[in-house]
Amino acid sequence: MVLGMGESGRAAAELLRAKGAEVIICDSQMNERIERVAARLRPQGIRVEIQPLAYNPCRIDLGVLSPGIDPSVPLVKQLHAEQVPVIGEIELAARFCEKPIVAITGTNGKSTTTELVAAVLEAGGKRTEACGNIGKPFSDVVRNSEKLDVITLEISSFQLETIETFRPRIAIFLNFAPDHLDRYRSMEEYWRAKLRIFENQGPEDYAVVNADLDLPFLAARRITIHAYGKEADYTFRDGWLCRGSEKIVLQSETSLTGPHNAENQLAVLALGDLYGIDRSVVLDVLSNYKALPHRCELVRELDGVRYVNDSKATNLHSMESALQGMDVPCVLIAGGKDKGFDYTAIRDLVGRHVADVVLIGEAQSRMVEAWGQRTKCHRAQDLAEAVAAARRLARKGQTVLLSPGCSSYDMFKNFEERGRVFRDLVRDLT
Predict the structure, then answer these.
(1) Which pLDDT tens digit goes with each residue over 107-154?
(2) Residue among 176, 166, 400 nearest 297 (CA)
(3) Would you tell me the crossing angle of helices 89-96 and 7-18 to the nearest 10 degrees?
(4) Is residue 111 within 8 Å of 256, Cβ to Cβ?
(5) Which residues in the chain are classed under CATH 3.90.190.20?
(6) Where are the CATH 3.40.50.720 domain residues in the chain?
(7) By C-alpha distance, which of 185, 184, 215, 179 is closest to 197?
(8) Overall fold of domain 91-288
(9) What angle do CA 67, 68, 74 make, to 5 degrees?
(10) Where does CATH 3.40.1190.10 sit in the chain?
């Protein structure tokens, strides 16, 4: 039984069917997207069930859980009660994977680093494909991995919750900051989920880790990175990306800026060295990389005001990184689904880098309470009203920055839709 008919659930069902399993896939709702998935799966002999309340667990040998589904839902509890093994799509694919894996996790920067890693490996002659929490599901790539040399995998804490044997050849842990407190009961629980990336590694494997992380004993060989002054194997000093005392490249000569991007770049440099890829090849990738949409993406400049789309900032750590890149106090558009963050933790930063903040969504009242004494706060009913308000407030030389610090699910399907709506609204300004 596969629970969840998103992309990872669909891919898990197809992988299982290709391996000869009898597959039931279920979801709690029917909509146009789910109907398209069902129409694809039924001809393959995969049984589709919508709104299942219960099954006779004796008929089920294995449950596969999609990462968006909370393991505490009743159907999962029923499988556990009947001692049916329940794993995630990542673990399922790992059991059929015959290629080495480079896995990337962290609170922020995963997608950028995953794309850079894949680009460096390809440029260095190693056939790979980026997958997992970015792009294709892991199961799809495993099914068609004959021509690959290595798999590049972005992996989230939700996906790590349900692993058992998953073992990356190289595990990269970029950073750790509060997030997903609407899913986890505590930061400790979130931390334990992230640490699972290392649990099956051995002494011949590598762990590329941020030197700030207070990690337990790791069986893998540890390589450290740091972008904020602490000693590490790879560091960011005086604008230079360095390995030990060796200055490799000025960050200004690459396509990304800021210490938060330096963490990603240092991890990629370490990865390139581990694979023996010529340094000039790695630097060429770092110089020509195009940033992903919705990550500090310049939409346009109008009347001397820059409009920047950072919709991917779904937690406070991401928002901090964007604000630290502002030379002049900006007009910030923030808010969304409240994930339980302590917004007072960045009150001083907001006070220094923000002239006005326009707030939307479920979290706006708590943000006003946290920031209102130091920063002028304005409420908006929706993103269109927020963009209009920011337009009125912004002065020549300032930036209007959409960096919500929250997830999008109270108002949008996902952060991509939120970013696209912001982009369209800004392009329609006259």
Answers:
(1) 888 989 999 999 999 999 999 999 998 879 999 999 999 999 999 999
(2) 400
(3) 30
(4) no
(5) 297-427
(6) 2-84
(7) 215
(8) UDP-N-acetylmuramoyl-L-alanine:D-glutamate ligase (3.40.1190)
(9) 100
(10) 91-288
Q: What is the CATH number of domain 2-84?
A: 3.40.50.720
Write the CB contacts of 88 (distance below 8 Å, at least 6 apart in sequence): 64, 65, 66, 67, 159, 161, 162, 163
> Which pTM value belongs to this model?
0.80
Q: What is the DSSP letter of 73?
A: S
Structure tokens that stand for 306 in this block = 């820059």
Q: How far apart are CA 44 and CA 11, in angstroms?
A: 12
List the structure tokens of 270.
């370490």
Q: Name the residue with tokens 């009743």.
A: 74
In this structure, the number of other CB atoms found within 10 A of the CB of residue 209 comes to 27
- Identify whether the C-beta of residue 333 lies closer than 8 Å to the C-beta of residue 398: no
Domain 297-427 has CATH 3.90.190.20: yes
